[in-house]
Amino acid sequence: MFERFQAFIQNLAAREPERAFAPGDPRVAFAGLCFQVMEADGTVSEEEQRHLRDLLRERYDLTEEQLTELMDAGRDAGQEAVDYYRFTSDLGRHLDPDQRVELLGVLWDLVHADGKRSEMEDHVIWRIADLLGVSPRDRVLQRQGAEARSEPEA
């Protein structure tokens, strides 16, 4: 009986694909937070997804396979999370105060990737900034910087 139970457990473990990105990985927390920001307005545009892929590829120097795995892990984590605390606490342990402010700028850039900004996206980033300990002033400056970067050149 015990051998049968042990074989069952081993069979389950064998079926679990080995994940390149563990749930506690700050890269997964970053990608999950990005997905939550992108989904705040109810739609995830192709522009937002493309912007996130480019961002993750550049930031973490990933192969296409690794990039797809990270995107999938981030999407899954974002859908499983009940709030932003899970991600902000993981990231807060790995980022200094200046990097936290920079993270908000990245999130604002992601919001502006599709050319639209919604009230819900504003609220999500406000909450994230609060949880990361980023001041309202820095949050507004990062938003204004993202707006300026997203304006078409004349």
TrEMBL record:
UniProt xrefs under InterPro entries: DjlA_N, TerB-like
Domain Co-chaperone DjlA N-terminal residue range list: 28-143
Alphabetical list of CDD domains matching this protein: terB_like_2
Pfam families according to UniProt: TerB (PF05099)
The protein's name: Co-chaperone DjlA N-terminal domain-containing protein
